[in-house]
Amino acid sequence: MSQRLNYLSKYYHIDTSQGPLHVHIDYTEEGPKQLFARIPPAGSERATYVALVSLLITKLFRAGCTPEEIINQLKSIKGDKRLGKLDDVDITSIPQAIAMILKRHTEEAIKEPEDETENDIPTN
Predict the structure, then answer these.
(1) Looking at residue 109, what is its pLDDT?
(2) Which CA distances in Å does 9 have to 6, 17, 49, 63, 119?
(3) Residues of the chain scoring pLDDT < 70
(4) CA atoms in the 13 A half-sphere facing the CB of 102
(5) What residues does each domain of the chain span?
(6) Helix, strand, or coil here: 39?
(7) For domain 8-113, is the CATH number 3.40.50?
């Protein structure tokens, strides 16, 4: 018999120069458990890459990695073009953007552990 998962979920959205990045984080009071990320157009190489990154992040959560460990690795992946700006930081790669979202999520979860909201993250 399967166990019912009682996850809360938060949605984040960032407009990037490569299109809107959509990130859903499923979590419990213990922290993030799953991360889903998408960027259009569906079926493109970029979209496949983003899906792969999110799948690997979920596997890292299930293997016991902390959000901080994942954030530290992702934020070091930089590209050669500016995609946007978040919290006064130039974002140059999708993994770096996901790291910033995950960091914001963990900071918000500490302040408001049971608040389910939609988060549009403005970019400059």
Answers:
(1) 81
(2) 10, 26, 23, 20, 11
(3) 1-4, 112-124
(4) 28
(5) 8-113
(6) coil
(7) no
